[in-house]
Amino acid sequence: MMKLTEFPDAASPRRRQILEIAARLFARNGYRGTSIRDIGEQAGVLGGSLYHHIKSKDALFVELHNAALDAAERRIADAANRHVAPWDRLAAAVSTLVDIQLDPDSITLPLMNDFRDVPEDVQRQLSTRRDAFEDLFRGLVDALPLPADIDRSIYRNLLLSLINSAGDWYRLGRMTPSEIAAQINRIFRHG
Amino acid sequence: MMKLTEFPDAASPRRRQILEIAARLFARNGYRGTSIRDIGEQAGVLGGSLYHHIKSKDALFVELHNAALDAAERRIADAANRHVAPWDRLAAAVSTLVDIQLDPDSITLPLMNDFRDVPEDVQRQLSTRRDAFEDLFRGLVDALPLPADIDRSIYRNLLLSLINSAGDWYRLGRMTPSEIAAQINRIFRHG
DNA sequence: CCTACCGATCGGTAGG
DNA sequence: CCTACCGATCGGTAGG
């Protein structure tokens, strides 16, 4: 449950600290809702001073986004690979992604959700990495014995967008993330 | 398929025209992504001139949001009420909401999706109207003969967030909105 | 509906 | 890492 090294490739401890601060702010307030001055404030310096560590706000966001997907992809693949039956493999992946998305301290993932908040040229830089992430789920879904009248591409998109937007309505207390995941797996299990 | 009077309570034709322009821009570019100057430009005037017709950007957005939910709620209730069996009623509601969300010319609904893009005090103004909208689906879901291990509140939230985020991945061509709706209804039909 | 502006905020930079 | 700025953009207003 504890995160130890979120950004292993950070080049210096100070830079890693800045990356972690920035990731938390982006996750909480979105791309446009987070200013360079906000990040500087939490890091104890003025906004302009950050440009010693980063090239631009865009480049910073892209770096955080890709590192977050790397970490998520590793955790999800590990969880799926502890099982062999197709439905079990998907259920493990869903449960892990739900955990990541609903963790209130998650630095990792809410970055995925802000796609349309981001400038268009940044979107283009992110989309390759996102496509690769989706391939993980494509493989899991393609292995399912689904009824013939369910389209696997639609099924995968529905499932992913549902999980990625779960943070919008989830409020702590009533149910745990793993109970939410269990409900999702029940609804999406067919045939 | 044609929209005739999107804003029946507009007070003047010019004001209605401005509301329609603003709704389209908010739907396309989000709350923060739409400036008062953008709206003025499309209306053929300078941004400041709009303040003869509106009180503030916030009040404009709230008005558009509530009018959009009024129109959506009417369409969805009408569609559901053409049926009696619970699963048919839900399917009709889902299909109508999907149509609204995926219509590329829709003024009506993508306003719902930008919740976290909007300032907090505006969020508070919108939430009452949204809760009432959700009650429509609450009634439809509560009438379903669902398996006992599926939580109706979670089921409803998952279904609504899934439909509301469908526009994020849907691209025209491969499938029509009603085919998407049919897939959703298949996946969410149980018991 | 325009002119002309306000105070605030933004990403980013030069020069030290 | 700071000082001191830049050009751009924002919502909104006074006065006509």
UniProtKB/TrEMBL annotation, chains A, B:
It comes from the Bacteria. Residues 12-72 form the HTH tetR-type domain. One of its GO terms (molecular function) is DNA-binding transcription factor activity. SUPFAM superfamilies: Homeodomain-like (SSF46689), Tetracyclin repressor-like, C-terminal domain (SSF48498). Keywords: DNA-binding, Transcription, Transcription regulation. Pfam families: TetR_C_24, TetR_N. InterPro entries: Homeodomain-like_sf (IPR009057), HTH-type_TetR-like_transc_reg (IPR050109), HTH_TetR (IPR001647), KstR2_TetR_C (IPR041490), Tet_transcr_reg_TetR-rel_C_sf (IPR036271). Signal peptide: none annotated. The keyword Transcription applies. Residues 35-54 bind DNA. This is AcrR family transcriptional regulator.
